[in-house]
Write a structure and sequence with these properties.
The chain is an all-alpha fold. The chain has one domain (about 25-300). It is about 75% helix and about 0% strand. Helix 4 packs across helix 5 and helix 8 (about 240-265) packs antiparallel against helix 9 (about 270-290). It starts with 6 loop residues before the first helix and ends with a helix.
């Protein structure tokens, strides 16, 4: 005689099956991304400079807009993830956790300060402003920082309880994809931007030839990685209805591709720069999902 399976056991079994299916799907997507990345990289070995010569327009309004503001959405996500992580660590003791809270808070202050400066830059002559009113300006920025952090704190506390893996996933994603990959390679690669090339492109180098510390900062593209920093938002909608899920995914991909295109359009990067930034961001995100166990399906179950 078969005994009925307790509900809790049935739910655990179902969750295990969903987790296994999610990991398998993530692995397949990861392999597809790597194959597409390698194929496009091979193609760009012969077409990289030609693409920039065809597209580049240093005065493009869209390109300049993305140059000034394209990293703001990604910074907002990192800022909110930092506040959520601080909320999750509240009440937990230990010097290491205390130091982490301080670091996250200082990071949050820096991000808000940076965004305030960037958003206000078109309306002020900042060099003259800082010379004449640096004390007043600093106090104004401090007020903006405090207000933004205060408004976001209450929502971050509620969000931390509802989506426990979002903050850790986002901050790790930002650390490895942006800090380690982008800033770890920019200086040592030394690739000259297309807009800074000598006449005739005499100092152009392909993406697979690092030049060392020359001052060139073309490879890879930080704006492109920052545009993909919105990917963790997927875990918030993965269990919602299909139209919403497809809409969010389409918007995230469209935004990242728009930023990548705009960086090539304005001459700040080559197609290979944004390709490697896109590939690195996607691979990093997929690996983190598999290792952390914060799959979209699992996190979405908490919604």
């Amino acid at each position: 005689m078969n005994r009925p399976v307790p509900p809790i056991v049935a739910r655990a079994h179902t969750a295990g099956q969903e987790g296994q299916a999610s990991r398998l799907a993530t692995k397949r997507i990861l392999m597809a991304v790597i194959i597409a990345w390698a194929a496009l990289a091979a193609l760009l070995m012969f077409t990289d400079l030609k693409i920039s010569q065809t597209l580049a327009d240093r005065n493009s309004p869209m390109g300049l807009f993305i140059e000034h503001y394209g990293d703001i959405p990604g910074l907002v996500i990192i800022l909110f993830a930092g506040l959520v992580m601080i909320a999750q660590l509240s009440g937990r003791r230990g010097w290491a956790l205390g130091a982490l809270r301080v670091i996250l808070f200082l990071l949050s202050v820096f991000i808000v300060f940076y965004m305030a400066v960037e958003l206000a830059r078109p309306f002020f002559a900042f060099s003259a402003l800082l010379r004449r009113r640096w004390v007043v300006f600093s106090l104004e920025i401090a007020a903006v920082v405090g207000l933004c952090l205060r408004l976001a704190w209450g929502r971050a506390q509620r969000f931390a309880a509802k989506h426990p893996s979002f903050a850790a996933l986002t901050l790790r994603f930002a650390f490895f994809a942006y800090l380690v990959f982008v800033h770890g390679l920019k200086g040592i690669w030394g690739r000259v931007r297309f807009c800074d090339l000598a006449k005739g492109g005499a100092n152009f180098t392909p993406y697979y030839q690092p030049r060392g510390f020359t001052g060139g900062l073309s490879f890879p593209s930080g704006h492109t990685v920052m545009a993909w920093m919105l990917l963790p938002l997927l875990i918030l909608v993965w269990r919602r209805r299909l139209p919403l899920k497809v809409l969010v995914l389409a918007v995230l991909i469209a935004w990242a591709l728009l930023v990548a295109y705009a960086r090539v359009l304005v001459g700040a990067h080559y197609a290979s720069d944004v390709l490697f930034s896109t590939g690195a961001a996607l691979v990093c995100f997929l690996i983190l999902i598999r290792r952390q166990g914060a799959s979209p399906a699992r996190e979405g179950a908490a919604i």
